Structure formats: structure tokens, C-alpha cells
Amino acid sequence: MAPSSKANQKAALDTGAWLFNVVTSVGIIMVNKALMATYGFSFATTLTGLHFATTTIMTAILKWLGYIQGSHLPLQELIKFVLFANLSIVGMNVSLMWNSVGFYQIAKLCMIPVSCFLEVLFDKIRYSRDTKLSIVVVLIGVAVCTVTDVSVNSRGLIAAAIAVWSTSLQQYYVHFLQRKYSLGSFNLLGHTAPAQAASLLILGPFLDYWMTNKRVDKFDYNVTAVFFIILSCTIAVGTNLSQFICIGRFTAVSFQVLGHMKTILVLVLGFIFFGKEGLNLHVVLGMILAVVGMIWYGSSSSKPGGKERRSYSMSSDKSQKHGVLSDSRELDEKV
Fold it and tell me: Where is this region: Disordered (predicted)?
């Protein structure tokens, strides 16, 4: 196959993976907003546990049908990943509970510089000046859109720090495990989803009671609420899978930068479906600035020297595993 056709195919697959993530992520936010705001199902941690339980069932069915081949992930790596992932989920929920919305958004923006730091520290990544500036533009644009009142307290600051670092480590670890153990997205989900489902379904009801003072078993499970719970779990399968596919194809930093496009889309859809309160000139300008920054980031990071490794030891290891990686990602590319 000619280099140009390979590049076009990769670009098409990257775009498809990203659109898959955007559609499922925005969809689940809209469904969860309706579920929690309209029907009062405020048990976020338990709901996440149900998401991973549904994902576990999906991976088990695909494995039974032969679409997922057997693979190995050391127990210690699995435990570390589940620890980071669950700390991320709990930390984000507690951060939202203890902090103002403005400080919560600032904490989320801090994930990009933390992810950059992890890539520089562990992967010896070097960013060009344009790539760094484009990231700053994205951060400013999203901050203008989302950050309103900012109030900080000591326990909220600790919760935000745990949320930021655990989320960044979890996303970095997705890329690291896929690369190190030649795991496709389905394979990695097959290892991690059952462990996350079990731990979150056990701890979730207690954490949700602590945060909301409501018991999940006392909720009024009417037909409409159950329908939205099932819909949320169904979309979550795609969200979990698309996150692993995108981080595997890109990096944690690129995933975070492009991820703010979802923030912009959620804001726009929120204004369309839930009223235009809060929509003003500086929000629109912030959206435009963020989108410009994302386009600039995509252009600058893809240029020679825009984002490259200083050490090529991993590259040689990666080339040795190329055949295995190609096989393990075959199903990802079909999705």
C-alpha cells in the first residue's frame, strides 16, 4: 500500500475513533443529566459501576463469539490501573461536591499540564513551541467558557488534586498498557472492566450515601427511570471502548486536548435543550478560542518536531511488536 493511502486510512480511522468517542460521551452526559436532574437518580458512583458491569457483559459475549482473543495482563498492573481509575471516579465526584463549579472546571483543565508532565517524565516527549502555545490557547478558551465563580477550601483542594492526578495517571496507563503488552482496546477492557465493576458496585452505594444522604435501594425505580438507567449503561459501553481506542491511537494529552471539544458540544447542546441562560458574548468567544486552539494543536503536533520522543528505545521495541499490535487493533479499526 502506498504511503499516502496508508496516511489517508490512518486519518480516516483516527477521525472515526474520535467521532465515536464524541458521540457516545456527549450522549451519555445528556442522558445522565436527564436521569439525575429530572428523575433524581443521583447515585453517580453506583451508576458508573453499572456501566462497567454492562461493559463486562459485552466483552464476555464478544470473547465467547471469538472476536476477542485471549491475552495476558499481570495482576499487579491490573490492580494499579483499577486503583487509578476508581480514585479518578470517586475523586471527580467528591471534587464536584466539595468545590464550586468554577474551581471544579479549573481542576479539570489542570489535567492537560499534568498529562504533559507524565509524557515528558516517562516517555521523554518533547513539545515544540507551537504545540505548547496551542495547548495554552485551548485552556484559556475552555476556561472562559466554563469557569465562573471560584471558591477554594482545603478539603476541596485535596479532592481536586487526587482527581486530577489519578485521572491523568489512569489515561496515561491506558496507553502504556496497550503499548507494553500489545493489548487492543477490547482486550484491555476485558481485563479491567470486571474488576472496576465489582469494586464500584460494592463501594458505590456507601459512597453515594455519604455524598447524597440517600440510599440507592430506596430509589423509586419507575419505568422511565429504569429506561434511562439502561440507556445510560448501553451508551457507556461505547464510551468506555472509545476512550480506550482513542488513547491507544493518540496519547493521553491529545485525548485531553480534543476532549475539550466535548465540553464545547455539551455547552452548545445544553443551551439548545435546557435553555439559553448563561449564553453570552464571552462564552461564545471562549468557544471560538478553544476550537481555534484545538485546530492549531492538531496541526502543530502533527508536524515534524511538533511532538516527538527524545529516546527511541520504546520505538525499537514497538517496531518488534508491530505485527502483534496490528492484529490486536484489527477489531478496534473495524469499530
Answer: 301-335
**pTM of the full structure:** 0.80
| Maximum distance among all Cα pairs of the chain, rounded to whole angstroms | 61
Number of domains comprising the chain: 1
46 HSE (CA, 13 A, CB side): 19
Residue 6 covered by a domain: no
Distance CA(262)–CA(112), nearest Å, equals: 15
- 244, 175 in Cβ contact below 8 A? no
- C-alpha distances (whole Å) from 167 to each of 9, 74, 245, 263 are 31, 21, 17, 17
CA-closest candidate to residue 291, choices 274, 273, 308, 268: 268
Query: Which grid coordinates are listed for 324?
Result: 502483534
Residue 321: Cβ-neighbour burial (10 angstroms; 0-12, 13-18, 19+): middle
φ, ψ at 74 (rounded to 5°): -55, 145
End-to-end CA distance of the chain: 22
Residue 2 lies in a domain: no
In angstroms, what is the C-alpha Rg of the chain?
20
Taking Cα atoms as reference points, which of 164, 194, 184 lies closest to residue 51?
194
